[in-house]
Design brief:
heterodimer, A: alpha+beta, Rossmann fold, Elongation Factor Tu (Ef-tu), domain 3, 7-stranded antiparallel β-sheet, B: alpha/beta, 2 domains, 4-stranded antiparallel β-sheet, 10 helices, globular
Chain lengths: 433, 316
Amino acid sequence: MSGLLRICTAGSVDDGKSTLIGRLLYDSRGVYEDQVRSVQAASHNRGAGPIDFSLFTDGLRAEREQGITIDVAYRYFATARRKFILADTPGHEQYTRNMATGASTSDVAILLVDARHGIREQTRRHARIAQLLGIASFVLAVNKMDLVDFDRGAFEQCRDEFAKLVEGATVHAIPISALDGDNVIVASERTPWFRGPGLLPYLETVDVAGRAERAAFRLPVQLVLRPTHDFRGYAGRIASGTIRPGDRLTAWPSGVSTRVARIATWDGDLDRASAGMSVTLVLEDEIDVSRGDVLATDVIEVGRRFSADVVWMDERPLNPGRPYLLKHTTRVVAAELDQPLALNDIGRVAVTTASPLVFDSYADNRSTGSFVLIDPATNFTAGAGMIAEALPEETSDAAYLSGAERIARAARAATSDAEAVEAVRRLVEEILR
Amino acid sequence: MHGTLEHEVDERVANPAINLDHLRALEAESIHILREVVAEFARPVMLYSIGKDSSVLLRLAQKAFYPGPIPFPLLHIDTTYKFREMIEFRDRYTAEVGARLIVHTNREAIDEGTQPFAVGTQRCCGLLKTKALLDALQQGEFDAAFGGARRDEERSRAKERIFSLRDARGQWDPKRQRPELWHLLNSRIRPGESIRVFPLSNWTEIDVWHYIHAERIPVVPLYFARERDVLVRGHSLIVPEQPFVPLLPGERLERVKCRMRSLGCSPCTGAVRSDADTVPKIIRELVAAKHSERQLRVIDHDQDGSMELKKREGYF
């Protein structure tokens, strides 16, 4: 069992999400006394009750004034069994992108619903985004049970409806009162019909281990370290799998193979390294590897066209006629997409990149299957994509842009003259290669 | 039941040996961030504040580029009011590590007599920290600056990105923050803009101490409890190193066993009463602590949401 669990939370406004998190932090002592006092003073000013737990989490002035959560906030707490990183994501629909952000690094999603209202459109949407981002383990926290007299029927209706919504995923539903603490840390006497563990005991023990560790080895190269003439190492964070000195590796997209000579770290050479670790590999043969290449133990997809599910996060809609910058692992390339998308839209699109990417499907690998899209005009991170599958390269003349057209587009996409010169130089080199 | 849980938390959290798994995950994530910046920016710099978080950051930088040297300079914004022990430690430790150190001071403001009792803490910080920092970043033409800030420190920092975009005046706009998904960091900036990078975003204060213990990282001796001559002001213990710290009527130095939980300028950083003279004792004390570490930093409390305002103005 991993000692670190990453969680995200989502729910509609007023479902009591901030209150629940405030209680988790307060009861697991992630909140210190002077923060409690500053919150008590603020609660008093706004005429709320004795302690408004949501004030622990609503960090920005604008949020405290409007009484809503408008950005992702990260919270940290620990229990005897585990450490937790919690991404608290807002419930407002216009901030769907934050839900995707929180879910992208999480193992478990906690979805809150109000027992009085049951599963609503917002919950369906959040569940869909979380599942799309690879969350396979859900907690459905049916909150405000005190307001429905801890009615078992109301709880089970929510539970059953939600289970149908996220078919294929693990769901643990819990009847809670965030305000009073029922089933948050300790089992509530007011729900004798509920046998499962409460929220915190569940999070302490849920098993989310090792999908990435069991998958095939992938290391996207971040840096080539050459401090002296007799050392040449490839630094990066292992995206998946395990590697040992002597293992056979192939560098993609070139397809040249060699063996691992050393796993070099500041703490000494390692005899084994696995997913999540930042390492430096020394290879037996001098082969041409640079940043953006992927070292892998097996054959991996290399191509310029694939389909992907894209979440659009920018107020400027996705324009299929424009090139975007696509960052995938440690590589940034120009890319075009074939469908328009507006803010908060999620759609399946075909992506064509200017140079080949080395990728897996997102279902197989969260690291080598994900990318972000950057608007070259504003530099905003406008979209997030999850690769579905490779598409055949279109070979007709219509599908391929002419060299001249590609150069013109690259120059137009640049934000400065220097950048345009550099983009054109790189493209010309690439075309001539 | 509740009492038992708290007891278990204390035992677990206070024992560094069983937290290594979690620390290695944090370490790997931070190294990834350091390398990403060096790969994608032309002129990175590391803000070095001499505190425990800076010591951790420095160790991570040594690891990230091993066996090579740290490929960027360190920058210390010296207000001239830092504790003497801090400056001694800075000069000794950075030399030992072999890092290149740049020290920058807003000389003009110092020469005009800027100090917290003369101009107030807000203006003093504005001139000696924020302005000095912005000037130093501009003079060095740095496009990326690492800082040791953690999201668990303060409410507005909980919303900070790992790559925090700043405009030409170093200012932060919380409404213009770029989404950060997976571990894909967006390095695109326009001329004049820069980013602040926070590799320790996901670390907590206890994680930092556990790591210092596990890695045997040197820190400034001020963190360890010993008898010191201090002015006792309410809950705050002030070490009067600067001649301008006024003695209040009837006040005199008292000998108190104390330590610093957070390091800053001597007139504005209070010590806490403590017997913790080793790292494990500090960890135990923190687990039992009832106050968060920034409480004794006067500057965070001058108005509601004051850290957010400072950040908007260009502070870390």
